[in-house]
Structure formats: C-alpha cells, structure tokens
Amino acid sequence: MKVDAGVNCFTGWHEMAQCSLPCDPVRKNLRNGRRRSARVSALSKDWGTSGCKQTVLIADIGGTNCRFELWRIDSSGEKNHQELYHRIFPTKAFETFPDALEAVSQEEVFQTNTPSAAAFACAGPVASNKCEMTNLDWTIDGDYLSATHGIRMAVLNDFEANGYGVTALDEEHLVVLNDVLSTEKGPKAVLGPGTGLGEAQLFWDEIQGGYKVWPSEGSHSGFAPRGWKQRALQAYVEREEGNCEVEYVACGSGLERIYRFLQSDEGCNRPTVDLTTCQEAPAITKAALDGSDPLAVEAVDLFLAIIGAEAGYLGLRALATGGVYLCGGITPRLISKIQDHRSLLAAFLHKESRFHKLLKTFPLYAVTHERTGLLGTREYAIRLLGQPSLIKAT
C-alpha cells in the first residue's frame, strides 16, 4: 500500500525565520539561537515511547530531492516488507533536514505507524554519524536526531547504502557475468558508475552476523591505462584536468570525456565518421545501443573496458570471493552491451595479467535494481531494530 498525502508543514520557528532582521553577526547569531531552541522544542516528541516495533523510516537525500519511505518490516524471515509511505520532496522546500523530517512526521500514516528506527543515505561525506551535504546547505546529524526522538537514527554515505543494498538483492536483479561459485561470507566489492563513480568493500562481521560496508574514495585514485588508446586518453584528460583519476573516465561525464577524446582524432583516420557532433551521456548511450553512431559505439566499448578493469582491481584489493557487483545508474541502461562479454568481462579477467587465475575465481554481477541505495538504507534500518536506542529524549 502506498500513501501519498499532502505536506502539512508545522509552524512556530519556521514562521520566525520569515522575519526580516539586519544581517549583522550579532543579530544573525541571536536569530539562529532562537531557531535552534524553537526547533528542539518542535521536534521533541519521543518516538521511542510510541514507535511501532516493526516500522522503519528511510530517506535518500540528494542535492535536489529528498525521498522518504516508511516500511512495515516482516519479521518472519520471508522479507514481505510493506511500503506504507513514499514521497519525494524538493530540498529547496525546506531550510533544514529537521524541517523536512517534521513535515513527514505530520502525515497521518506516520502518526499511526511511528517508526522505531531510521536510516538516511546522504550525498556527501559522513563522519561520526553526521553528514555535511556537498551540494546542499543541510547538515544531517544522526546523534542529534536520535537524542531528539529517542530512537536510533543512522546516517550513511549514499554509496555505502548501495553496499548494504547488494546484500539484500534478489536473484532477479542480478545478471551473472563471471559465473563461478561465491564463497559464503567471502569479501565483496561494489562499484557503481553514475553521476560519479562509487566504490566500497564489504567484509563479514561475525558479531553483527552480517556484512559491514567500508566506504572508499578509491575512484579518485590514478587511472591505470591499458594499451596505446587508453594511454592517449589519459594524456588527453591530463591536459584537460591536470591529472587523470579513475572517476574522470568511469562515470557519466567520463563517457562524455571519452567521446570528446575520440572526436579529437584526425579526420583522415576516420573518413566515414562524423567528428563534429557533440553528445551528452544519455545520447551517447542511446546511439551506442542502436548502432547509429560508430563513435558512440567505440566510446561505450572503451568506457566498459575501463569499468571492467577497475572492477578487477577492486576485486583484487578485497580478495572478493563473495563477488564483485556493478551498481550505479548507468549499469542497467547498458546491460545489453555489458552482457556481450567483449569489453567489460574481458577487461575484468585480464588474460595478460599474472593474476588472471585469481580473477577468474571472483564472481562478477551486474545489478539491474535501480534503487539499490534505498534497499540498502532499509536493510541498515532493519538492523537497528534489534539494537537498543543510543539516547532517549528527556
């Protein structure tokens, strides 16, 4: 059951924010202090005293939109979880994340299904259960929110959430690329080309009885080219950006960069190809899939070879006998090209490498689930249900 009700924004300090005060530092600090005091008062409801033991709240918070979902969790082990609420808000509609959270808490379905745990996936670095958003003037402070509402609230990096998501995927959302048996409780590696390139490693935690995700900034390490064309691409990117990290050639803008690199070739080398067109990633993908642009086909093949190589490197770093998973928004769109095994899988297995035999032992999967991050956020929130609240509101 999905519920789509209107937003009933609360009043109080939000109205106070509309007053016009001179913006000198003293008055600004006074105003912020009043706001904070009013916010604490407005958000002081202790959900822990009335929360439904099997209900969790999750959110995916980006620079433009904030997606909230409320789930009733099936504790039988059958995973027949029920979605009670799903709503996307533009982040510009709220000054702070607590404002958005309070608006959601006023919904009727929330009032009758108050959660006992919450997890939020954020597009930004997370430290000490707190995220300062990269492209948004929001701070998501899990400890503050836990103290306010009396339930456990966790803040995750958005790709960390993808890592937890792969542990909850059904087989129907996995395309097997390297078909070998996975090792039970073996390490896993996850990478995802999309707007950027995310990377993470998963290791089994005996105490928790599940995988622990370790986020990474590995996508910002140096690109390791293979062959003359990739070395030329590296030089091209270095002239453009000053250096060439993996993400520069392994995400949406990276695909566009590869296409521009191929366009820079001498016309005499490609007499039958139009080198004057300028393409964005969705158009390049479409043209590669329908075969209407030979340059787009070449760009996507080169792009997938780079992704495959990076998947192999990540698998070696983690000794990923539990599997390497390709997530991200681009993966489902290019699944037919990924499955042809010419570019990505060949680069992953790297027959020329002395570690080819080891790479062959790592399962490789393409993930077609387009909301793996939210799936992982829900998975993490479910784990919190079995934990005592960190802090109780007083």
From TrEMBL:
<dbReference type="InterPro" id="IPR003836">
    <property type="entry name" value="Glucokinase"/>
</dbReference>
<dbReference type="InterPro" id="IPR043129">
    <property type="entry name" value="ATPase_NBD"/>
</dbReference>
<dbReference type="Pfam" id="PF02685">
    <property type="entry name" value="Glucokinase"/>
</dbReference>
<protein>
    <submittedName>
        <fullName>G1400 protein</fullName>
    </submittedName>
</protein>
<keyword id="KW-0808">Transferase</keyword>
<keyword id="KW-0418">Kinase</keyword>
